[in-house]
# Entry
Amino acid sequence: MRRGTRRSGIRTAGRRAIALALCTAVLATSLLALAGSGSSAAADTDDPSVRPGMGDIFNGYVVGALSSASVGSPKEIFSALLPNDPFYDEPTLTGLEPNGTLLKAKPVDVMFLGIQPGNLDAWKVMYTTRGQHGQQVISTGILMIPVDGTPNHERPLIAYQEANDSVGAYCHPSTQWTGGDPLDGSLWSALGPLAQMFGGGAAVMISDVGNNGDPEPHGVFGGKFGGHALLDGIRAAIAVQDADLAERPEIGVFGIAGGGVGAAFAAEIAKKYAPELRIKGTVLEGMVVDLQSFFRTADGSIGSGFVFATLLGLEPWYPEWELDSQLNLAGRAIAKLFRTQCQTPAYFMLPLVPLDKLFKNGVNPADNPIFFKAFQENLLGSPSAKDPGRAAHPPRKKNRILISSCAKDDSPMSLVPAKDARDLAKRYRRAGAKVKYAPTDCSMKRFITDLYGWGTDLFGMQTIPWLFKQMRR
# Structure
């Protein structure tokens, strides 16, 4: 492994120059820096309405990591694309292993589009966790730590739950960040936030929410499963001996889109499931609060494929659906394809398709009673039976919550009703949680007039300084 500045082999200045140029171009493009870079110093404030400037993204650490970057060899680049890493072979378990038991850890090189940044240590990890209904399962993930002179036992730890909704194998973060699935949108959307997190000196643990190498369809949309996998991923990261993290580090959680669902459930269940973890702040960015509401809003839009994929990502936890028996010939063909694919480009294949056309009964999935139990079990901030305006299982007060989502339903990208996020904040607050609601402008007008600000808000980059402030409390 390339640990810190210890390089394997001799890298020429020319190759490093190429790597630096490529990384700079990739990051600049992915951050949508097309309409002006912005000059605000977001790192100096925890106000989530302040967008990060390019100096916050291309901070001192990032510039150093790019300057010492290398281009992977053809063999390294090609091998990273192959779905055959024996690391994902699961050991036999007794069933008695504590949640978050580290089963194995493997040092790896981080690689993006063939570029290997310097000054960055990383490990693939495999650990035990719990499924949607409490059954023991195995998950994998990747732990990344910047090498910047700070002792690792003094670092905060951020659990980053990506916007990764892939049902297929080898589509998840531990593959993405080691050179596989290089075109996935969740990978690109994470570049800016990770640059900020590493620049702030945080170690970052990203769960795959399941075993990345498992050939069976992944139950990534099970909210409680996502919460379990996130919390147990933190435990596993702390247990990696070579990483030398503190036994009880200050922890922040960042979840976006599908990852925001897992992050929210982690916040709701942490008090009982992982009371020893010092989670001090959680960012919930653009997540689905209410599946039924999301289905009704996004069905027939550019997000139709994601609605259909959501059903497939719930299916492993609800086998009683016998989903194929509900689908017509076209629906079964698409489901068969999606179950083996990564979200990009597969889930973009059904724009504007009404999903009732894929079901034998011709009913919109939002109105099909067979799915109602799953809708209820995956509702964020599930209302108390005695007081529907109050969350039954709110985040604990020590874990402050920032909810960031589109302020209005005024964009084709607004697939999650704006009201859902506002209602979640109200239910959490009424139950005593410490919640900040920070709506963003997702409008097409802003897309046209301020592409940079629109993009950084979409990726949740304006929330990172707030998260660091919570961890420092």
The mean pLDDT is 90.
